[in-house]
Amino acid sequence: MATANQNTGKMKANFVPRVNQLDSIQLDNEITNLLRQQIQNILQVLPPGLLSHLQPEVNFLLNSALWIFSIRTCYATFGQQMLSIAYEKDQLPTRKLALHYLLTTVLPYAKESSQYRLTRWSSLQKVVQLVENALVLFNLVNFFKFLRSGTRPSLVDCLLGINHRSLDGAKRRNIGYSYMTRELVWAGFMELLGFTIPFVNYHALKRKLRNMLRLETTHRQAERVELNADTRCAYCNERIILPHHMGCRHVFCYLCLKGNQLADAGFQCNVCDFRSDTFRKVVVL
């Protein structure tokens, strides 16, 4: 009876929630991607194409360094260390460590190298594709197995028969409600903006602010329209399409003038502040 109670206590102490195991995999992927991005930023300062043909080797060295300083040293990946979990040390003897390195580092390098350099070997590429599809299927089956048993979330863990253990006992995972609260507040604020912004007349507001910031506001009387080969639209500053004017000497594209007057009933010429409710086509004599 005492032995059974001890085994039960040991199982509870070594229990690792499924969410922690899945999160450790996600953290490992994020750490790898972050380091790869940093390496890419460093390689950008080198002449173009200098190390592009060595990309598989660069990834292999990165993965090897991560494996040595995590699995080889601490029997846990960096993502697992962040969540206070690790592999059972007695389940990873030297032979299994070598197999773990082969499956997680050497084989991905071989696949990437073959896809990068042996593109002319169509038969080899088909074999690699078939193996990759089979691994995807096996990963799916192993994932459903993990959801039921709660152990060995990755295919490598299942093949080697290694389990996780908790480094700080069977503690409940703390949930940061402050982060959830910030997200809810931000989501509510964005929803409020999305509801109110369509009711704000941006064009009229911009015109009123521009008039308020001016020390003197003068509305010029109608002047003679100037239109020649070099004339640009007073609003978009591009070559005029269908020239129109609103009574001052400045010429607008039809769509620029019509669109602004539809958006803002009090639209003024953005050059001389002339205001008119109508506009006419510029007639070249």
Automatic annotation (TrEMBL):
GO terms for cellular component: peroxisomal membrane. Signal peptide: none annotated. The chain crosses the membrane at residues 184-205. GO terms for molecular function: ubiquitin protein ligase activity; zinc ion binding. PROSITE patterns: ZF_RING_1, ZF_RING_2. Residues 233-273 form the RING-type domain. GO terms for biological process: protein import into peroxisome matrix. The keyword Signal does not apply. Its EC number is 2.3.2.36. It is a multi-pass membrane protein. SUPFAM superfamilies: RING/U-box (SSF57850). Keywords: Membrane, Metal-binding, Peroxisome, Protein transport, Transferase, Transmembrane, Transmembrane helix, Transport, Ubl conjugation pathway, Zinc, Zinc-finger. It is an enzyme of class 2 (transferase). It is found in: Peroxisome membrane. Pathway: Protein modification; protein ubiquitination. It catalyses: [E2 ubiquitin-conjugating enzyme]-S-ubiquitinyl-L-cysteine + [acceptor protein]-L-cysteine = [E2 ubiquitin-conjugating enzyme]-L-cysteine + [acceptor protein]-S-ubiquitinyl-L-cysteine. Belongs to the pex2/pex10/pex12 family. PANTHER family: PEROXISOME BIOGENESIS FACTOR 2. This is RING-type E3 ubiquitin transferase (cysteine targeting). It comes from Anopheles dirus.
